[in-house]
Amino acid sequence: MSARDEILARVRAGLAKGDAGARRTAALAYLRTASPGPQPTLAGDLLTRFCAKAGSLASTVERVADYAAVPARVAAYLAAHDLPARAVTALDVAGLDWAAAGIVSHSGSAVDADPVGITGCFCAIAETGTLLLLSGPATPASASLLPETHIALVPAARVVATMEDAFALLHRERGQLPRAANFVSGPSRTGDIEQTIVLGAHGPCRVHLIIIEEES
Predict the structure, then answer these.
(1) Residue 22 CB neighbour total at 10 angstroms
(2) Each residue's pLDDT tens digit, 72-88
(3) Is residue 124 pLDDT above 90, yes or no?
(4) Nearest 5°: CA angle at 27, between 24 and 30?
(5) In angstroms, rounded to a whole number, what is the distance separating the alpha carbons of residues 106 and 86?
(6) How many CB atoms lie under 10 A from the CB of residue 78?
(7) Residue 160, Cβ neighbours under 10 Å: how many?
(8) What is the DSSP track for 20-84?
(9) For residue 172, what are the contacts with CB-CB under 8 A and spacing of at least 6?
(10) All residues at 6 or more sequence positions from 178 whose CB lies less than 8 Å from its CB, including other chains
């Protein structure tokens, strides 16, 4: 038997081990009952930790009292960085009064010409300063990945401690994973070119986070 024949025989034998539906049910049952692995103990306020970690990853962070203040703060950020006041907004944040702040916006999926993408997020992770964004009809992934500048609105109440807490929240509220779950830890970067960190290599070169402090 050749190496190829041996590998394919093992695959066939593995596929023949019981009903696929039963194996999936058993795997899901294990995931629901399995004990979590070791997790760090995070001291202090989770929101303060998240802001500090996000800043260390080259994101910029500001805090506002409520959603009504967001459009004006976005306009100020764009003006401060000499960026055009044009943006694509995910549908979950499209209802804010962008026009009153002088921002020309359209909602939905991003296109190449969009300089800025504005999104919400499912939650944020204090341990690593990371956002969790879920794809869906109201939250297309392109709005956070294609424009050079990504502005994310982060409700303070949606900051969790660890990655495990983020997945637990996702399973509790959604029941199953969406088509894509994207973890965003600052601007896109690479160190492949002469071992020099370059921002914006495979996605946004700027990530600005606006923390919404109002209680839901």
Answers:
(1) 9
(2) 999 999 999 999 999 99
(3) yes
(4) 150
(5) 9
(6) 22
(7) 19
(8) HHHHHHHHHHHHHHSPP---PPPPS-HHHHHHHHHHHTT-EEEEESSGGGHHHHHHHHHHHTT--
(9) none
(10) 134, 135, 136
